[in-house]
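Supplementary Note 2. Why include the ligand at all?

Several targets in our set were suspected to adopt different conformations when bound, so apo predictions alone were not considered sufficient. For every target with a known small-molecule partner we therefore ran a joint prediction. The input for flavin-adenine dinucleotide is given below.
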Amino acid sequence: MNQQVQRLVVVGGGSSGWMAASLLKRLFGQQLDVTLVESDDIATVGVGEATIPPILFFNRALGIDENAFLKATGGTFKLGIEFDGWFEPQQAYMHAFGRLGKDMGLAGFHHTWLKARANGDARSFWDFSVNYQAAKQARYQPLSMLPNTNLPGLVHAYHFDAGLYAKYLRSLCEQWGVKRVEGRIEHVSLAPQSGFIESVDLADGQRIQGDFFIDCSGFRALLISEALKTGYEDWRHWLPCDRAVAVGCEATEPRLPYTRSIAHEFGWQWRIPLQHRTGNGLVYSSEHCSEDDAAATLLANLDGKALGEPRTIRFTTGRRQKQWYKNCLALGLSSGFLEPLESTSLHMVQSGLVRFIKLFPKHGINPETVDEYNRQSKVEFERIRDFIILHYHLNARSEPFWQRCRNMPIPPELERRIALFRQSGSVFREQDELFTEVAWQQVMLGQGNIPEHYHPLADSLSDTQVNELLNNLQTLINGTVEGLQTHDSYLQQHCHR
Ligand SMILES: Cc1cc2nc3c(=O)[nH]c(=O)nc-3n(C[C@H](O)[C@H](O)[C@H](O)COP(=O)(O)OP(=O)(O)OC[C@H]3O[C@@H](n4cnc5c(N)ncnc54)[C@H](O)[C@@H]3O)c2cc1C
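The joint prediction is reproduced in token form.
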């Protein structure tokens, strides 16, 4: 299609719709007419409250002030995700954001730690994570470097209220000139020859025409699937959870600056602390647990009094075979779904938008552009999928659900990564991959995949020098963390709702 893209229509006013409308309008300004269509009668999914550090870039691109943002969204700081009982009951570890230990050149810090471990040092890997130590002591304040060193300080993301988030982005969009149309889409009109979308037609007779459409209609996938019939790749054989039951509860103090992911017999439970409530949900496999049992388990494991009735959400893990097809791009739930174990969905909306902007079809849509977008999306989905499978697969739990996850065949690429780490402690971040080597190391170690050998370069330090290095790091980290404000007091002072 050689038609210029000037009129952009976003379908859906959940987080993904408002993220798309805000970023595109902010960056393209007058070059793009942006209209967002949403129906007040069709609720948003209402979850999606934990994020990962790249969200800071998204907010920066929108010119958002952090404190004002957290105030408006009831948000809190997030330093990592704790996995409780994932390897075996009573054991916990964290995927703490940021670096861990000290950069040791070609052999990562974890090899030095492995050497100390081989010598009988019982200290945990996470004793050397400033994020972990601050998280567990419920402390937070901005800290870009550890004092008097060149070692990085805290790396954070946010928890926020999904409803307030969409409202906040909507208010920005309205200031910047995004047009919002309320109404239920009943029909999608396709051009007879090309099959491109011409308009979305509302129940009240309005017809919204556009050059390009972004499908943010949620699991319904109104444009990309219902109208354009792109297929879906189902990944339930690797990620068997297909339901979540969610309920908020009263906030408890201290508000933890991290997400908790607690393994249960047939799935796992999230706890997301916000200023005004805690978000909770249980992700489970309907093959292993009934809806009633899931709700009862969730209600029995809340920190505070439930606020309302638990609500069930059904999903099929997998991805749309083409995220971009003709003049339609799917973002958010319409593009596919990976469960929220590593809080990646909103990030994938962001990265999808960045990819789209880099390939923006201002002068018409050509197949090379579309193929490149879809190629990169596929790789991104698959890498995140593998990282999530890793948590399930490497477990030593006894329940049938966990046995199934342990015994299932996994994607060969993940199999290779697990074996490589087991043999040599090596893990490599593939080009542009979201998760860092340190993230992979933490989950590998946390899930019990302890390397057989450490790298020989770790022997360039004697046992005494290794011990000294670890002592110094620990003293530095502990001393720094003790001096930080509590998370609650920082929120109260700077971001109180
Ligand atoms: C259980 C669960 C937990 C999650 N947790 C996290 C998390 O912690 N972190 C994270 O990053 N992500 C998480 N996610 C994902 C996250 O919730 C979504 O990526 C995000 O909310 C975006 O949703 P959406 O905007 O695509 O869809 P929705 O929120 O479903 O919005 C769909 C929109 O489309 C509109 N619409 C639909 N049909 C029509 C129609 N016919 N006419 C007009 N309008 C229509 C609706 O009105 C609505 O505005 C989670 C998802 C689930 C299911």
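The longest strand covers residues 306-314. The longest helix spans residues 367-393. Comparable summaries for the other entries are listed in the accompanying table.
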